[in-house]
Write a structure and sequence with these properties.
Strand 4 and strand 5 form a beta hairpin. Helix 3 crosses helix 4 and helix 6 packs across helix 7. 37% of the residues lie in helices and 24% in strands. The chain starts with 8 loop residues before the first helix and ends in a 9-residue tail after the last strand. The protein is globular, with a radius of gyration of 18 Å. The N terminus is likely disordered. The chain is of the alpha+beta class and 230 residues long.
Length: 230
């Protein structure tokens, strides 16, 4: 295996910024109690690309894929939403805008949902919410910039390694054997902008080399240091 070179963001990226960080316990309680708790079954669409951004969502349980569909009907995965993360931040904007992607439940999901009116009222009361939303948007922008640079400067192997490491840092579960990431080959390949066949072949190679272990809808990263050249 050729270690990934160039950008090392995958190994060092900090966790995704929290929408409720920096708030007092009482403020967090008020904000959470102001939300509507909603459940979405697996494969159900939560919002569609182009819909008016009238709601902000915080995922409590499950996984959500956020994507766009090309003119040919192919999905381009923009973000893999994990518990604790938000989407629909456009609802906080001063003017009514639209969602830039489609959010779909990958498995049974539970979300906290705020109407645009309510979340803007809460942000007016707690400036920290707006600061956190900005931090999250900047985090997304940084991730998308990394992907764009990767498309023109990295091999498919490197892009796949970086995508897997970023996901492990952001949403992985620490196990005695390594870090477990709940994602399928298909979704990982889309997130890394790599063909599904190429991703499957590369993951099998890394598994043979003992760098990771594949399961059904899960990948256990055993040796993350093997992905990068420190």
């Amino acid at each position: 295996m050729t270690p990934a070179t160039g950008r090392h963001t995958g190994a060092r990226t900090l966790s995704h910024p929290s929408f409720l960080s920096g708030l007092t316990a009482s403020a967090k309680k008020l904000i959470i109690q102001s939300a509507e708790l909603r459940k979405f079954p697996s494969n159900s669409v939560i919002v569609n690309t182009g819909d008016q951004a009238s709601r902000l969502f915080l995922l409590r349980k499950g996984k959500v894929k956020y994507y766009r569909v090309t003119k040919k009907g192919d999905e381009v995965l923009l973000w893999w939403v994990s518990p604790g993360e938000v989407f629909g931040i456009a609802a906080l904007g001063p003017s009514l805008s639209r969602y830039i992607g489609t959010a779909e439940a990958v498995d049974d999901c539970e979300l906290l949902v705020w109407s645009r009116k309510k979340i803007r009222q809460l942000a007016a009361m707690h400036d920290q919410l707006s600061q956190n939303a900005l931090a999250i948007l900047l985090h997304y922008l940084s991730e998308y910039a990394d992907r764009l640079v990767g498309l023109v400067s990295e091999t498919a192997e490197h892009r796949l390694a970086h995508a897997l490491l970023r996901l492990g840092n952001r949403a992985g579960r620490v196990r005695p054997e390594g870090v477990e990431v709940a994602i399928t080959n298909e979704h990982l390949s889309s997130l890394a902008d790599v063909g599904a066949f190429t991703a499957s072949r590369q993951l099998k190679q890394w598994e043979r080399e003992g760098i990771l272990q594949k399961g059904r809808g899960k990948i256990l990263i055993i040796s993350p240091e093997s992905f990068v050249n420190d």
